[in-house]
Amino acid sequence: MTSDTIRTPGAVGVGVGPFNLSLAALLAPTGFNARFFERSADFQWHPGLLLPEATLQVSYLKDLVTLVDPTSQYSFVAFLGAHKRLYRFINRTESRVSRLEFNQYLQWVAKRLPNVEFGTEVREVRLDADGFAVQVDDRTMQTRNLVLGTGLVPNIQPWSRPYLGNEVFHSNDFLRHPIDATGRVVAVVGGGQSGAEVVWHLLLDIVHLPSELVWISHRANFLPLDESPFTNELFNPAYSDYFFSLTSEQRDILLSEERLASDGISPVLLQRIYDRLYDLEFLEQAGRRVLLLPGHEVVDMKPGNQGCHLTLRDRWGASRTADADVIVLGTGYHYELPEALLPLAGRLTWDHDGFPVRADFSVEWDGPPELRILRAGRGGKAGLVHAHRFKPGSLEDQVGRADGSIPASSRSTSAGRRRRRRASSGCAHSRRPTASDRWSCGVAGAVGQFSHRRVRVSANRPPRRARTDSRLGFDSRSARVHPRGLRLPGPSRCVEGGRCGRVWPLNPVHPPPTGTC
Hints:
Strand order of the largest sheet: 3-2-1-7-18
Largest sheet: 5 strands, parallel
Number of strands: 22
């Protein structure tokens, strides 16, 4: 046990996925005392989907640190240099990084960080007189800031739950369920990136091709990710500020319009699958082995004489059936509250987008305002709904030191007064950021998409430095944050100036089902 683990940390991270790993890498050089705990023995980034041919959907520069601190020793380019492969990487013709290589990079960073502990589980978080009491295995520590980074869990549809096993499983576990598809019927349910990667993988091996591959998606077609430059502008900080200022109804409209900004299949992968289907049918004489069923939803599944019997419904309400020996569920993911936080569940606010956040980007809850819970932002555009944006470099200034003292830089100086006034906005820069202020004033959802947020957004006054972005059609002067003025769906309703009613839909805990069709 190091001295850092004995000291009361200024922040405790629950789980170490890419987001909390990014935060740990950004905080490590600052001296801020934060500790991040992960129950797994080492870092693994979706190990069940680390297919050898899978690539990243975004630029490798959107790594853990580069967009915040381009000179960081924890960047992907630094990883390439440390492994003597930078020149050869530059000479490659493939512009996209494989997931296998990026996972190597993430593991390399995880092993070098002094503020991360693997094989250590946060078992319970409760509230006491001194703040959050965090039980970590056999020891308890106090903190005033929690960062939740436990990630998402697979969506398992009710019709498939009784049959989960070696023949019916989520795509997240694909490599954990080695299957011999030779001569068998395989159904892939889901028209997103994961489902497409499984389809591509199954079609590559001409020796072990399935007799038929059924690809089912509820979407009208197998739709591409929108990677165009103006769409990528939606992930910039100015748009994040604008989006954060909208009502929940307005956000829902924008999210439905911008869904393919983060939730689609890489165009390159779609082209590869299409080309592969052509080659199999006309060049390799394997025949037409793939049945494409976009616009269909699986509504029921039952054991058949051989394999499983699927009942489908198309977008117009007509029914059809399909039989399969193996079913891979590319049905996405959802968020569940970590079990360690169940003692606080009744005090947290929850709506259809997850945790609403306050103006300082902490989760809405009815505990002491100086105690903050921050959740790792969701990847993609949906992460802007409740963007958990805060400035790692100034976190200590915002909450005070672990021993309760006020940092010297915040005592009795005009700069300190400015920091204290700005604490609720999540930004504690002095008037002109210095070279050391490379940290973001906010985290805008996707890992690595950090930036200085110099326009102060306030519920009571316009930003000091208003600016208009005519390209995107919004004016930053209209950005107002009313953390308690949003009307929530269902029985939970917020009234201007009042407190939000809390709705907590407890997630049912299902024991891991076993069995096959």
